[in-house]
Amino acid sequence: MNDTTGKVLRIVGIVFFGLTTVMNLLGGIGTSCAAFFTREYPPYWALIKQDMQWLYQALVITTVIIALVGIWVLVKLIRRKEGAFRNAIIVLVIGTLLAGIQYYYSLQLFGKAAPANVKFYINAATLVLFLIYLIPAVKQRVNFSNEESGGDKDIAAGLAAIILGVLLLTTPIWAGPSHTFQGENWVMLLQTELNLSGILLTGAGVAMLARVIVNGFRQEFALSKVDITKDR
Length: 232
Description:
The protein has 232 residues and is an all-alpha fold. It is 77% helix and 2% strand. The radius of gyration is 21 Å and the shape is globular.
C-alpha cells in the first residue's frame, strides 16, 4: 500500500464519518416530533399505547448529542489531531448502538424502520471501515494523527462538505416517503433550514476544491518557470 492509497483511504474515512454524523443529526431531529409531540402524529400513537414515548425521547436527546460530538470529532479528523481516530470509533460504537435500538423498536412498534434502518446501516458500515483501519498493515498508512499538507486537508474537507450538502438538499426526496402522512411530507417543515445548510456546505466544499486546483496550477507554473530558468 503506497502513500497515495493511504491518503485516499483517509479521505474515504472522513467522508463516511461525516455522512454518518449528518445522518445521526437528521435522525435525531427528525424523530423529535414523534417523540415529544406524539399526539399530533397518528402514525406514532403506538408509542403512547405501548408506553414507549420515554425511550424515543431518550433516543432523540442522545442521538443529537452524539451527532454534535461527531461534528467536533470530524473537524479533529480533518485536522489530524491526536486522539481523533480513537474518539471517532467511540462515537461510531455509541451511534451504532443507538441506531440499532431505534431500528429494533421501530420494527416492533410500527412494523417498519425506515429511515432508522438506513441510519443503523451507515453507522455500522462506517464503524467496520474504521475497524479495518486498525489492521496493522492499513494503520501504518492510514494515519489520522500525523500532519499533512494543506491541500490534502482541503480535499478531504471539500469532498465531505459537498457530499453532506447534497445529502441535506435532497433530504425531502430520500426521507419523504417514510415521513409522508395523508399526502403531507413532514420533512418539508425543515425545508428552509435544510436548503440553507445544504447550499452553504456545498458552496464551501466547491470553494475548497477550487482552491486546491488553483494552488496546484500555481505550483506547476512556478516549477515550470524554475525549469526554464535552469535550462537557460
